[in-house]
Amino acid sequence: MTHSNIFRNRYISNVLFEPVDRAWRHEAMGFWDETITRWQGEGLPAEVNDMATAFVFNGFDWQAPLIFEPDLHPGIYPLFEEEELREQGDTIIKRSQYGSIVQVPKDGHSTPPHVIEAPVSDAASWERIKSRMDPSSKGRIEEQEYGLQLAETEGWPLIAYICGLFGTHRHLLGVEPLMYAYYEKEELLHEISRHWVYMWKEILGTIAQRHTPDVVYLWEDMCGKSGPIIGPHTFEAFMTPYYQELIGFLRKELGIQVFSVDTDGDCTVLIEKFVEAGVNMLLPFEVQAGMDVLEVRKKWPDQFAIWGGIDKRELAKDKKAIEKEVMRVVPPMLGMGGYIPGIDHLVPPDVSYENWIFYRDLVRDVVDKHYRIKDG
User: At a CB cut-off of 8 Å and minimum separation 6, what does 375 contact?
Assistant: First the structure.
């Protein structure tokens, strides 16, 4: 394994349950902005001031990202001109770059915006916004030049971060209107879904003419503490055929091997549906929502890779609690394969810098020990 492709081979081998020198190193999905600000007062160098520099500073394994901002919008390009409409108490009402009218805090602290009015409510409004979801929009692919160059020059895994289908419906209609749409506007949802498949086939196919992505990472965020927002039957009707069509094309025609889904909360009852749809990696398995990766792995021994499952809340406690949680999860999961150690979300600001470093280094010690023993 050459130095230039070690990160790519490690990632793919780890996810596909193939022999690997060690687990992919990425002990957290990321960090809240407030977390980084706190840590700068506790010893974190000032130049480490955002997600990207934090990834580098913490020695995470390298990747070449194609970031389509899936947690923010469904693939709109170009974005809308942001427009402040009015102030309301300690919040601002504005038309966002993504076409929604939203309410956000004046002080700018990290919190999801409250959507007052989503951009799509009927066929006419969908037609108006669809032009901004044209895969051939000038400049769309060019914005991904940085990730493409890294993949070409460094050999790092090329990971396309795109909006999943539920995520697309949610962004366009809003959560509550979407629930009604499943019963009242079925054809609208199917039309959006057909366009979703077309758009990402075209975008990823164009990118593959230059460099084929190794991973397609789908943002869904469709589950809460009590379970998924939609059930298996709705998933089968409104998601399965479109997932299967897109993943089938990307796997067969482009040779992409890894399809991961990121959804918070308790996704237990949808795991089977994601597997049937072609997904072979799931994350982050929130412990506070009742997810236990050990139990998931026992039921699903080799059908998909798991990333996460370490309770982030334990990092805010003492080192004994952190060690107990790490040892509960990491050694047995490494032994079963297809596992990337990590906490079950972003690192929250109640975690001290000292505790983060202790946790990070402990996980790496456990991983290194496992693979030394395994190889020895």
Answer: none
Q: Which two tokens stand for residue 227?
A: 């379970």
DSSP lists the bridge partners of residue 94 as: 84, 102
Burial class (CB in 10 A: 0-12, 13-18, 19+), 30: middle
- Mean pLDDT computed over 7-34: 96
3, pLDDT greater than 60: no
**Whole-angstrom Cα distance, residue 103 to residue 226?**
26
153, 7 contact by CB (below 8 A): no
Task: For residues 313-336, give the mean pLDDT.
Answer: 98
End-to-end CA distance of the chain: 19
Full set of structural domains in the chain with CATH: 3-77+119-375 (3.20.20.210)
- Give CA separation, 153 vs 25, 150, 158, in Å: 21, 5, 11
Count of beta carbons in the 10 Å neighbourhood of residue 63: 22
In this structure, which amino acid lies at residue 154? Answer: E
How does pLDDT run across 271-316, given as a tens digit for each residue? Answer: 999 999 999 999 999 999 999 999 999 999 999 999 999 999 999 9
- Say if residue 105 is preceded by a cis peptide, omega within 30 of 0: no
Backbone angles phi, psi at 116, to 5 degrees: -90, -40
Structural contact between residues 266 and 228, judged by C-beta atoms closer than 8 angstroms: yes
The Cα-based distances of 105 to 116, 182, 308, 369 in angstroms read 14, 31, 30, 46
Token look-up 């939203």 returns 102
What would the two tokens of residue 296 be? Answer: 């998931």
Instruction: Give the amino acid at 307.
Output: W
